Amino acid sequence: MEQPARYPIHLCQPDDTKSCGACCGLYNWLDHSKETRTLLLESNTSLFFSLGETPDPDVYRELRSEFSPQHKLCDTIYNCEFIGFLDKSRKNIGCLLHPALHHGVDLRGCSFYGVEMCDGHFCPSYSSLTVAEQDAAAAAVDDWYLYGLVITDIDFIKEFFNIVQNRLGLKRELFTKPAIKKALQDYFQLKECWKFASRGSRLGKYCFSRAEYHIARIEYEKSWAIKPSRFDKILVSLASEFKTPADICAAELIIEEKINALIAAYQEG
Ligand code: SF4
Ligand code: SF4
């Protein structure tokens, strides 16, 4: 995918340490753990290149249909069979049909979405995140699995930066200093190890039920007669499911720690 001039950062493939494949359906599986996603990408890649340097997509598709079926999160979102690893070191993921892999020959015409859609799609993160937010998020994550989860979650990034900026009294975003990379990494890492994450059909703030999905809510008033958390957007983005108000307090403490760590890193830096 070529990067249009209006977007200075290529969020899909920002550098050679990671890339994203979220809109190709990478996470649209009931079990979207890193382990199963790695297996899927590995299987796709091995099968694809076992058919030669520039395989016939139809032959690949037919052989791939013999893979064991997996349960999708949302039936109406397409999970593309052509997503795989793009490099030998297994750091970058993306489209196995892309012309960059086939001496300029574009094979995406054989895909479900076709060349025009695959080439021209730029998700809302491109326009909703500021360039500073995009830059900071891309710089802080060096792993394809976490990167895709983070870069597509606008609330998760924006809300955290807004809170930190407000507390620091900053009018401009200044989150690209190297000193704060570690603090940002620790916050983003919550996506993979959130102790209050729902075990249901969730991906970030979205709740799925077969053919439909909606934005989840935490029912503070209804469940416990309390006010919404000051970190509500972040907690929803983390797919939180709480059993007691004490759980919410514990979760808020964790977020508070991450905010304080970033502020401290910023001030020291
Ligand atoms: S979800 Fe966005 S960043 Fe990720 S591959 Fe798609 S367009 Fe690129
Ligand atoms: S063909 Fe399109 S949807 Fe499929 S992996 Fe390539 S870019 Fe993604």
Q: Give the neighbour order of strands across the main sheet.
A: 3-4-5
Largest sheet: 3 strands, antiparallel
**Small molecules in complex:** iron/sulfur cluster
SSE topology string: HHEEHHHHHHHEEEHHH
Q: Determine Rg (CA atoms, Å).
A: 20 Å
Helix/strand structural class: mainly alpha
Give the number of helices: 12
General description of the model:
It is a single chain. The protein has 269 residues and is mainly alpha-helical. It has 2 domains: 103 residues, no CATH class; 116 residues, no CATH class. The chain contains 12 helices and 5 strands. A 3-stranded antiparallel sheet has the order 3-4-5, with no helix packed on it. The chain has a two-stranded antiparallel sheet with strand order 1-2. Helix 5 crosses helix 8 and helix 8 packs antiparallel against helix 12. The two termini are 36 Å apart. The mean pLDDT is 93. The chain binds iron/sulfur cluster (2 copies).
For this entry, give a set of tags.
two-stranded antiparallel ribbon, globular, 2 domains, binds iron/sulfur cluster, three-stranded antiparallel beta sheet, mainly alpha, 6% strand, 269 residues
In short, what is this structure?
With 269 residues, the chain is mostly helical. It contains twelve helices and five strands.
Record the SSE blueprint.
Layout: H1 34-50, H2 57-64, E1 83-85, E2 93-95, H3 114-120, H4 125-128, H5 131-140, H6 144-151, H7 154-168, H8 181-188, H9 190-193, E3 202-203, E4 206-209, E5 212-215, H10 220-224, H11 232-237, H12 245-268
Antiparallel strand pairs: 1-2, 3-4, 4-5
Helix pairs in contact: 5-8, 7-12, 8-12
The structure holds iron/sulfur cluster (2 copies).
